Amino acid sequence: MSRLPRWEPEDPQFWKETGSAIAWRTCGITTFSLIFSFATWFVMSAVVVRMPAIGFKFTTMELFWLAAIPGLASGILRLIHSNFIPVLGTRPVVSISTIIKIIPMVWLGFVIQDTSTSWTTFMVIGFLTGMGGGDFSSFMPSTSIFFPKRLQGVAMGIQAGLGNFGVSIVQFVAPWIIGFAALGSIVGGPQAFTKVDVLKDIAVTKNASGVVTDVVAKRPDLAAVTVVTKDADVVKDVAIQETATTKNMQVELKKNATGAVTDVVVKTVVKKDIWLQNALFVWVPFLVLAFILCVIYLRSVTVPARGFKGQFEILSTKNRARTHTWNCTITYICSFGSFSGYSAAFPMMIKTIYGGFDGAPDPLTYAYLGPLIGGLIRAATGPIFDKWGGSKGMHWTTLGQIAGCLALIFGGYLKPTGLEQFQGFVWIMLFIFLMSGTNNAATFRQYPIVFAYSPAKGAQMLGWTGAWAAFGPFIWTSLIGMAITNTGSAIAFFIGISIFYAYSWFVNWWYYTRKGAERFDYGNSGGTWWDKLSDSEKENMKRIDLHQAA
Hints:
Layout: E1 3-4, H1 12-41, H2 43-47, H3 60-81, H4 84-88, H5 90-99, H6 102-111, H7 119-129, H8 131-134, H9 136-146, H10 149-177, E2 191-198, E3 202-206, E4 212-217, H11 220-223, E5 226-231, E6 234-240, E7 249-255, E8 261-274, H12 278-281, H13 284-297, E9 300-301, H14 307-311, H15 321-354, H16 363-366, H17 369-388, H18 390-410, H19 422-450, H20 455-469, H21 472-487, H22 491-513, H23 523-526, H24 529-532, H25 535-545
Parallel strand pairs: 1-9
Antiparallel strand pairs: 2-8, 3-4, 5-6, 7-8
């Protein structure tokens, strides 16, 4: 039987005898599927930083758009998914949404091997990879329905936190698995990877005519092997003796019409074979396995709902639903929108902000750390916010996000003068990931409490807020890219996002955190607004919600 005839998780006897085993089994399987949903969602951000080195001639802004487009798709698709679970049930929705993600993985795996593939084609495929983020608004409402309120923070914290590992996994696995023919020749041959870096440790002196008169290597090890040939006061040739350090270096001399040297550029050129398609095809067997598990073991629950149209009653004025829908949307964009947005933008930020320095870091060496930290802390802090209350967690972590942004701005890390600032940049970004991940755990405790009078609306709210926050990768990546392109740094973006965080903090404090707040949540230990209502007040809110006469 695919649909359970009875589901009463708030009944202690039912939960002990029947509900607990089914709920945790459902949570385990859907979490396994969600991990690979997130992996396919963020796979474009992992491969886009490698595309220029294998021959794709896309501009910096075009690369930012490729990293951003899955976020646009996921936001749109989440608005659709947020209606599915209460109406169609967990089993069909999760099963179908899992297997369909094979399409963009296989398509992208083949076209990325052809450097003549158009940017438009990649944008279409990137939009389809957004399906991996879109179905999140089915996973969370499902878990909300299966668990009692006292365990929703734990269950959804585990699911969303472990699901977020998919972001880290794809960014960690990609640089490793593309380095060899891990999947054999069946998925295609290697691409020629060429990485060219211009050394800035070479000082070139020119005379009034623009002719080079001297070349000095600033690094002692490089100066020892640099040979400059002069004729009088004019440089005629520059050569670098080959050592273990300089074997990949090339000297490029630029000359005018008379043959005089007008510029000297020293480059490091690294060439090797990579199999970029491996980063796409590797997820296919995991998606197939997840699909099989979903079909066999998942079940659906019937909840009081009134079809697709009824799901949009969270936008009505009944029980002040519209006000709290807006509030929850704002605070979830602040939390998960930030987490997903920075996850998508982080690799390109490293590449564009610090990629011009000698010895520039590989973006994928560091990019996975942020989502890993955010996912771990989200899974770990769910039980804490069940005890303390989600609104308190949101209060302090939003302040932490603001502090992180201000540290980037005023610390000079967004417009660095040297590579020595990179370590500070990474640590601050990891702190922001820590805060946004913790904030994310708090929100998923808070939202079912805000709509405690209706499990269906609580589930719908999780899907609705997740839908808007899923635009995070699109908004964050595109705006950061535009800020860097138009102003030379991402400072303008971080000023704007700090202002937004401040607004989100105020909304949460006024409606949910301060003493006497309308729908406060002080946790299982301190009580919630719903706990303080009388039985008659609770029944009245339920009656209004279900359109029942007094």
